[in-house]
Write a structure and sequence with these properties.
Layout (H helix, E strand, L loop, with lengths): L2 H4 L11 H31 L1 H38 L2 H6 L10 E7 L5 H13 L7 E8 L3 H15 L5 E7 L10 H17 L9 E5 L5 E2 L3 H11 L6 E8 L9 H17 L12 E4 H6 L10 H12 L5 E10 L8 H16 L4 H11 L5 H27 L3 H5 L1 H5 L2 H30 L11 H8 L4 H8 L1 H13 L14
């Protein structure tokens, strides 16, 4: 297949050649098959080879402990850098640049909207209004869905009336429903909006594509005041900026005080995970709201409209397009978004599960990148192996690690038979695992501490004791990890195995 063809693959259904389609289906089955095989083997080997499993779980838990301690260090380091970047005067740094005039560059900001209420969208636009970057260098697109036009038309009119004259250009786009070959959702809506901005603004004004920095946001994304000046500085000072994406740190804190305990814990866990990942830019992949060169977006053919996990897919599209010469630059600068909050507690839990499953559905990147790597001979082999292993290990651990950590220490004792039950290692196994898990609490303490200091200002009707409750809620993390980490991941991977492809599910946005 030609590069342009395999860059557009969403599922095996997009491949015309029968043999190639079968091969791609095998790759789609692989992530789920690996995870389910792991879980089946731990039961079989706990019964047949309990000594092997006992030794394995001790080594696995020790490695996991070291990983937790290392990532706690990365979290502290990332938080420190974030606070430094928040204090930096990026406009002054831009003014001192001699090789490029930063005022020649524009920011194209696309805000896809579904049925979100006015108060959420308005806060996002107000954050753009308050940022330190010149508004006459900002092109803002409110990307609405034609499917729900009757429900959101008044919200769109209100936003246009309030903010329409505030930026260099402000346009509203209506993404047509049921376009051939599309999955309705954020990615397809955003692509429609970006194409309209190109056709109606950028091309008629002859703005060079390399002079446009594109930001992909959710409608609940609140930018911190120096985001665009920080982004501009990194864009203008990095090598080959047109072959880079720029990843801020997403803080899911807009409505943190209103969120239920599991939702809040998961929101902060996602924040911490992305903060830690910024320390490894060679392995960093775009997630949620991020920015990139408009030139790259155009050259790659815009975001795919037939995938659910478009936030990471745009990175892999560019990685394959530029033969591996594409990477993510960590900004160490925050933006904030909403935690999952619904009308009732059961509905919130359902939505947390669906959000986790949608994120875990990114396991579909594994067949995509393996297939792409096999078709691209220009990417260095070691780079292919590294990126493949990192991606596979991440999704495998997502679906299995919690089960291995919390259950595998007991399975050999239950299934291993009387002979193993009388052995010395059988006697010591639960004690060793218990000690390792106790030491792992250091990671929970670190997470609890940072979750407190990252919170927005406390509502006036909340007492100081609320902080203690927020600290103690991290004790439920083992239960949360089981219910909302491996299960939705296995759900998503199993759907890939069976060819039961998902559509895009928009997370409900709600604030009191």
């Amino acid at each position: 297949m030609k590069k342009e063809e395999y860059i557009r693959i969403g599922t095996a259904l997009d491949i015309k050649n029968p043999k190639t389609r079968i091969f791609y289906r095998i790759l789609e089955i692989f992530p789920g098959a690996l995870s389910w095989t792991t879980l089946v083997l731990i039961f079989v080997l706990s019964w047949q080879k309990p000594l092997w499993i006992a030794l394995f779980i001790i080594v696995f838990d020790l490695l996991w402990l070291l990983r937790i301690l290392y990532r706690s260090f990365l979290l502290h380091s990332g938080y420190k850098k974030m606070k430094e970047h928040e204090k930096t005067d990026w406009i002054s740094k831009l003014e001192k640049l001699e090789s490029k005039n930063w005022k020649d560059y524009y920011h194209l900001i696309v805000l896809p909207m579904y049925e979100e209420p006015l108060n959420i969208a308005r806060e996002s636009f107000n954050s753009l209004k308050k940022c330190d970057y010149p508004k006459d260098k900002m092109i803002v697109v409110l990307a609405a869905e034609e499917l729900v036009k009757d429900k959101v038309q008044q919200t769109v009119k209100d936003l246009e009336a309030e903010f329409g004259d505030m930026f260099f250009k402000f346009i509203v786009t209506w993404h047509p429903s049921r376009l051939p070959g599309e999955i309705p959702g954020k990615g397809s809506n955003e692509t429609w909006a970006a194409r309209k901005a190109k056709e109606d603004i950028i091309d008629p004004l002859n703005i060079p594509y390399e002079n446009v920095i594109y930001s992909s946001f959710d409608i609940d994304t609140v930018v911190f005041p120096k985001y665009f000046s920080c982004l501009s500085y990194h864009y203008l000072t990095c090598d080959k900026p047109a072959q880079k994406s720029f990843q801020p740190i997403p803080l899911f804190i807009n409505n943190a005080w209103q969120a239920s305990v599991p939702s809040r814990v998961f929101s902060f866990s996602s924040t911490f995970w992305n903060t830690m990942n910024q320390a490894s830019p060679e392995r960093l992949v775009t997630f949620s709201s991020h920015s990139m060169a408009f030139k790259a977006l155009v050259e790659v053919g815009f975001r795919q409209t037939n995938v659910v996990h478009d936030d990471s897919r745009i990175f892999w599209q560019c990685f394959l397009k530029y033969d591996g010469d594409y990477k993510v630059i960590p900004l160490y600068y925050p933006i904030s978004m909403d935690a999952v909050v619904a009308e009732t507690y059961p509905k919130t839990m359902k939505h947390v599960y669906k959000q986790q499953r949608r994120w875990a559905y990114g396991a579909g990147e594994i067949p995509y990148i393996i297939f792409g790597f096999l078709n691209n001979k220009k990417i260095p082999l070691l780079r292919k192996i590294e990126m493949t292993l990192v991606t596979v290990e991440g999704h495998w651990a997502w679906a299995t690690a919690s089960f291995l950590i919390f259950f595998l220490g007991w399975l050999p004792l239950i299934l291993g038979g009387p002979e193993f039950g009388q052995s010395l290692i059988s006697y010591n196994l639960p004690r060793v695992v218990s000690h390792i898990m106790t030491l792992s609490m250091a990671g929970l303490i670190t997470s609890a501490y940072f979750s407190i200091i990252l919170l927005p200002p406390k509502p006036i009707n909340y007492g100081q004791s609320r902080y203690l409750a927020l600290f103690l809620e991290w004790l439920i993390i083992p239960v949360v990890m089981i219910l909302f980490t491996p299960i939705p991941a296995l759900d998503a991977q199993t759907r890939w195995m069976l060819g039961k492809y998902m559509g895009f599910w928009p997370t409900e946005k709600m604030r009191n």
